Amino acid sequence: MARRFGLVAAHGKPEAGQLAEEIRRWLTARGCAVAGEGELAAQWSDRDVIVAIGGDGLIMRVAHAYPGIPILGINVGRIGFLALAEREDWQRALSELVAGRYHVQEGPTLAVQLERRGELLVDGWAINDVVIRAGYQLIEVELYVDGQFVNTYPGDGMIVATPQGSTAYCMAAGGPVLTAGVHGFAVTPICPHSPIRIALVVPEQATIEQVYLSEREARLIIDGEPVLALERGDLVRVTRGSHTFRLVVLPGTNFYEAFRSKFNFQIRPEAQPSRGNERAPRSGAR
Amino acid sequence: MARRFGLVAAHGKPEAGQLAEEIRRWLTARGCAVAGEGELAAQWSDRDVIVAIGGDGLIMRVAHAYPGIPILGINVGRIGFLALAEREDWQRALSELVAGRYHVQEGPTLAVQLERRGELLVDGWAINDVVIRAGYQLIEVELYVDGQFVNTYPGDGMIVATPQGSTAYCMAAGGPVLTAGVHGFAVTPICPHSPIRIALVVPEQATIEQVYLSEREARLIIDGEPVLALERGDLVRVTRGSHTFRLVVLPGTNFYEAFRSKFNFQIRPEAQPSRGNERAPRSGAR
Amino acid sequence: MARRFGLVAAHGKPEAGQLAEEIRRWLTARGCAVAGEGELAAQWSDRDVIVAIGGDGLIMRVAHAYPGIPILGINVGRIGFLALAEREDWQRALSELVAGRYHVQEGPTLAVQLERRGELLVDGWAINDVVIRAGYQLIEVELYVDGQFVNTYPGDGMIVATPQGSTAYCMAAGGPVLTAGVHGFAVTPICPHSPIRIALVVPEQATIEQVYLSEREARLIIDGEPVLALERGDLVRVTRGSHTFRLVVLPGTNFYEAFRSKFNFQIRPEAQPSRGNERAPRSGAR
Amino acid sequence: MARRFGLVAAHGKPEAGQLAEEIRRWLTARGCAVAGEGELAAQWSDRDVIVAIGGDGLIMRVAHAYPGIPILGINVGRIGFLALAEREDWQRALSELVAGRYHVQEGPTLAVQLERRGELLVDGWAINDVVIRAGYQLIEVELYVDGQFVNTYPGDGMIVATPQGSTAYCMAAGGPVLTAGVHGFAVTPICPHSPIRIALVVPEQATIEQVYLSEREARLIIDGEPVLALERGDLVRVTRGSHTFRLVVLPGTNFYEAFRSKFNFQIRPEAQPSRGNERAPRSGAR
Among C56, C156, C223, C234, which one carries the catalytic annotation? Predict the structure, then answer.
């Protein structure tokens, strides 16, 4: 049963701010404590849930700022894949939350370190992915897993993704979708200039090292944010992070249903699941 | 330190039988107990290691016959991916084994059940993969994970693979390679007749159900062996199996090196790993 | 302006037979000559158009029986990709036809010859594709183009497809879609057991030769029909065929629209084309 | 029989300059006229062949500067795919050339126009490819072929490639390889954020239009050169260009052999082509 809430709305989206006001009133009227963005800094560690009104970008930002607190995303963006509740459903969603009818889905994070000539320049962490990405020219990246050389990849770079991040850039680059609960990370080359191409999934315990071999412009990108221009010889080390990403999942929410509808993943849209009704009640699932 | 051995050679390969004799003498001379195929049935549960001389097919057969016992494969087949020791290396490999310089890599297995009109027709298990595979015409398979409908796939069928099986048919169908230690199974459609295509990796705890929707010829294939002709409405349920697949891994053996050489996975064959020598001594690694 | 029609309905589909009767009456009432399946054998070469009522399988059968005559397919099957008119649209479609408001889209065919120990066992032709396809076990196929060795492909076989066939098995195997008017054939390996994978498009003038290297069960399949069990050493030669495949295309019919709707190829289903109205009137299209 | 040569060496590669000197002496000694880079501007239109010493980048530059003249590339770069002669082979290559033992392989070019608010900002042409490419964030591109809407692609952009360009970025993005002589262009989305993905091949006569829908940073790249930062609403139109790209091909040169060796496209490196000797003598190849 969630009683203490944080509340964060996407900047620059008036409808998000308005909805935040409505939600604050609604929660307060039900006896809940609500901390807005200003107050959160002091109080976040005792919050049961943070309600984030926006898209996936906001959820990432909130998770970075308040690591480990369960987040419920209310989608006012375009394709909210982490933002599981749709805007028009907010009352139902919050009712479930207040009534304790939810569970928290945990996902691993990635720790990322960049070493340049022995110096540690970046020491961060990621919820979705750590990406080495070329500017407008082909680059080369060497990949090692647990100290073992895997390959040299000429192309547009390399993605290391968590399960929750696998539906983002990883899938776009042709990598696999890892559903929640898989203990592994996907390592997917971006447009490798080769007829040889395979995505790897490595265990969570793996140490994934990448050496940047080119002089050309490329960046280290963490959860979609470019953090550093790479230099030849840079070593990017990715391991399992110490934080846990926690997402509030409401009854009737279902990864496959969401994936099907948000990505139009419907090979035969007219097909009726033969076992749909008896086994997997879809009412309420959107 | 391994002292009690089982010894199995591929049938129909005279060189495998000959090598088995040599190995038996070599092991006996070093004070080890060796049970040949005839004697194994009675003694297998007390064996430390079974030495299998042949290709991957033999290792699968041995693992099915003597579940849970660590296997060292000596490759006399063409592409032995599970058979990690090459024929010419057998003395070094057995020396390591007898000296106890090895570890046992554990992999999950798959339990598979086929229900037809409520009756259980197949109750088996797999080391590599469970496959629904069309004959010469397009078939349709419905996929559910944990009771949730995923999609209806028209095409050549569907593969559920373990990590050790992911380099077999799963990779061929465009699925990901799951390295040892990943807790998940790959679910890969075979030639789906659609521009929509994605491979999924699901947690080991998942229940993967497939409903066969066509009248056309198709088979259930377990670890490469066709076990049953499918009928419309058949339900194939795959979960984590109770057995564990155990493979003997010797020092200097390395998945990535083996994958690179056996599948010629070398995008830039002339490239020298920049960190190869300091971190990952490759001498002895083949 | 089409006046002399052939009329063929799919067997075993009562609604196709009924519709054929309606269409015969409709055409006759408009002064057209109509030959049914019985009469066609004698008269087909003077027909302007053959109307085929069924799915893509029927169109292929008709095109093989009466090569070179333009065909209008009326779809009463499931996914008719060649059958461009939908059942409920038949009157509009035939009105256009009788009024001469259509064009004939021409596609190349494939000639296929199978040689076994110097003997010619198969000498046929294909509208869509020529396929070497494994039974339930991995096979090996060697590919040559214009006498040049390309590669040895272990896997499920190989597809050579025309543009009109590229949306069938070729696409399912991960190959490209060649739109009408491309002068080339797609050569796509089926589930190659390798991380190395690429589809080739070769010129229409190319000679595509495949040598079957395995002992295992496999078949030569022409336009979806298995025609022969392959034996080790068989040579399958594919070149451009002498026939032309002719499909009647009505105004408002549009490959991309059809592809989008029949294969649900809609990445963002809600997206409105920004130039849709000014340039590509979609009313009446499907 | 080639007698009048142009001679261009890659800048910044001393060995290319040195080799150019050697080649000039060698050709002059054989009575050929040789124009160096300084003299070429005046004389290029009467040259039989331009010899370009460098990598593929240089060949592209030369082909843009002197359109239509056959080019022989001598590779001193890393992976020269258009530069068909290897450095150490230069004497043999030039002997063939002088003796007239070569043919000229012709490839189509692409015309590209960019319109912004009705104004024509770019009017250029490409040998390999025209690319819309995102900076570090997802962009959206709408694709039309012959005025027909195809799809809206969120992702890293889009590639239109000629056959000679298809082994470059097109292949890297998962597109098909079009061999010489195919009359068509490949249209391949770059990392589309979707499980829906297919590469298209369209006829040479097609008009390929792309509308840039995002506000984010992206560029129009022609043959690898960024030429313009894109703005929302920009229309990029690609059609067949009026120039022809001409490449000198020497006896024993063979696309498949080159592709196999340069991209290590060898699924079974140890395999001996069963028909290799009788049909496709490989001695002297590459």
Answer: C56
CATH superfamily, domain at C4-107+244-279:
Probable inorganic polyphosphate/atp-NAD kinase; domain 1 (3.40.50.10330)
Name residues whose C-beta falls within 8 Å of residue C108's C-beta, 6 or more positions apart in sequence: C162, C163, C183, C185, C204, C240, C241, C244, C245
What is the nearest CA distance from A136 to chain D, expressed in angstroms? 7
Q: In 3D, which of B129, B148, B152, B128 has the Cα closest to residue B139?
A: B152
Give the CA-trace dihedral at C148, C151, C156, C159, to 10 degrees. Answer: -30
Q: Which of D197, D267, D268 sits opposite B195 (nearest CB)?
A: D197
The segment(s) of chain A belonging to CATH 2.60.200.30 are 110-242
Q: What are phi and psi of C169, to 5 degrees?
A: -65, -35
How many Å separate Cα D85 from the centre of its chain?
16
What CA–CA distance (Å, rounded) separates C231 from C213? 8
Q: Which of A153, A191, A201 to mutate to test the interface with B (most CBs of B within 10 A)?
A: A201
Identity of residue B247: L
* Phi-psi region at A252: left, alpha or beta (left = phi > 0; alpha = psi -120 to 50): left
The verdict on A198 touching C (C-beta cutoff 8 Å) is: yes
- Comparing CA positions, the residue from B35, B60, B61 lying closest to residue B49 is B35
- Segment D144-188, tens digit of pLDDT: 999 999 999 999 999 999 999 999 999 999 999 999 999 999 999
Contacts of B6 (CB under 8 A, 6+ apart): B34, B35, B36, B40, B43, B44, B47, B49, B50, B51, B66, B69
Pairing of strands D4-9, C225-229: unpaired
pLDDT in tens, chain A (286 residues): 789 999 999 988 889 999 999 999 999 999 999 999 888 888 788 899 999 999 888 999 999 999 999 999 999 877 677 888 889 999 999 999 999 999 999 999 999 999 999 999 999 999 999 999 999 999 999 999 999 999 999 999 999 999 999 999 999 999 999 999 999 999 999 999 999 989 999 999 999 999 999 999 999 999 999 999 999 999 999 999 999 999 999 988 888 888 888 888 888 888 888 886 444 433 333 3
Domain with CATH 3.40.50.10330 in chain A: 4-107+244-279
Local structure of residue A87 (DSSP, 8 states) = G
pTM of the model: 0.94
Q: Which of C162, C198, C213, C277 to mutate to test the interface with D (most CBs of D within 10 A)?
A: C198
- Which single residue is written with the structure tokens 């390999």? D128
Domain D109-243 has CATH 2.60.200.30: yes
Nearest to C105 by CA among C60, C44, C163, C160: C163
pLDDT given for residue B254 in this prediction: 84
A135 touching D (Cβ < 8 Å):
yes
Report how far residue D4's alpha carbon sits from residue C237's, in angstroms, rounded to the nearest whole number: 42
Query: Tell me, what DSSP letter sits at residue D209?
Result: E
Instruction: Kindly report the CATH class assigned to A110-242.
Output: mainly beta
Spelled out in words, what is the top-level CATH class assigned to the domain B110-243?
mainly beta
What single DSSP character describes residue B201?
E
Q: Residue C178's Cα: distance from chain center in Å?
A: 12
- Give pLDDT tens digits for D31-88: 999 999 888 888 788 899 999 999 888 999 999 999 999 999 999 877 677 888 889 9
C residues 11-50 closer than 8 Å to D (CB): none
Residues of D in contact with B269 (CB under 8 A): 264
Q: Count CB neighbours of C157 within 10 A.
A: 28
C283–D contact, CB cutoff 8 A: no
Query: SS3 helix, strand, coil % of chain B, rounded to 5?
Result: 25, 40, 35
Q: Is D56 a catalytic residue?
A: yes
CATH 2.60.200.30 domain span(s) along chain D: 109-243
Q: Looking at CA atoms only, how far is residue C78 from chain D in angstroms?
A: 21
